[in-house]
Amino acid sequence: NAGVTQTPKFQVLKTGQSMTLQCAQDMNHEYMSWYRQDPGMGLRLIHYSVGAGITDQGEVPNGYNVSRSTTEDFPLRLLSAAPSQTSVYFCASARGATNEKLFFGSGTQLSVL
Amino acid sequence: DAKTTQPNSMESNEEEPVHLPCNHSTISGTDYIHWYRQLPSQGPEYVIHGLTSNVNNRMASLAIAEDRKSSTLILHRATLRDAAVYYCILRAPLYGQNFVFGPGTRLSVLP
Which residue among A42, A56, A106 sits closest to B43, beta carbon to beta carbon? Predict the structure, then answer.
């Protein structure tokens, strides 16, 4: 049972480039979410999904797109990367939208030059 | 959203108990108190949660004040592996309610 898997672990982009951070879970969880964590700070919610085909914005959605075509996958897209998006990104899932227990991936360290 | 207040940092000696406080004076009746921790270079992990009664599990204990305006996470015997940032979070088990992570408490464990 792999849990929540994030790829890549590290990525360097130039300003204006696009990329997709991948997140997959094998626990049949309905709820999935993306957070970013800047140095010395807590996590801030970017986007979340309560099921396939349903997504919604979190606290800091600007500059990011998401989609949820399957239960397992919840990719995060940066359409035109900016230095302000340099951060560590975490994907998390939970059994249901009201469930208490979040399971996190190991994170993607993204640097935008 | 109800907010929580935690000390920025705490220190403990190895093999001694640790009491991590959290204040949440504006907690609502439906808010559960959750604790997560984040080890260095890892994603957060669930520790414990509760509503009104004290809770115990293999990782820790959660003591909740009678008026629910504060709570304490108790690590009974700190190990070096417990050095982490600990987050206290309030969340109502309602559709659309997300987890809001503050800066947390950075716990250092001294050998």
Answer: A106
Contact B7, B21 (CB under 8 A): yes
Q: What is the pLDDT of residues B68-106, one digit of tens each?
A: 999 999 999 999 999 999 999 998 877 667 888 888 999
A5 membership: H or E segment, kind and range: strand A4-7
Q: What are phi and psi of A59, to 5 degrees?
A: -75, -35
With a cut of 80, say whether residue A99 has pLDDT above it: no
* DSSP state for residue A84 in the 8-state scheme: G
Residues of B within an 8 Å Cβ radius of A: 32, 34, 36, 41-46, 49, 87, 91, 93-104
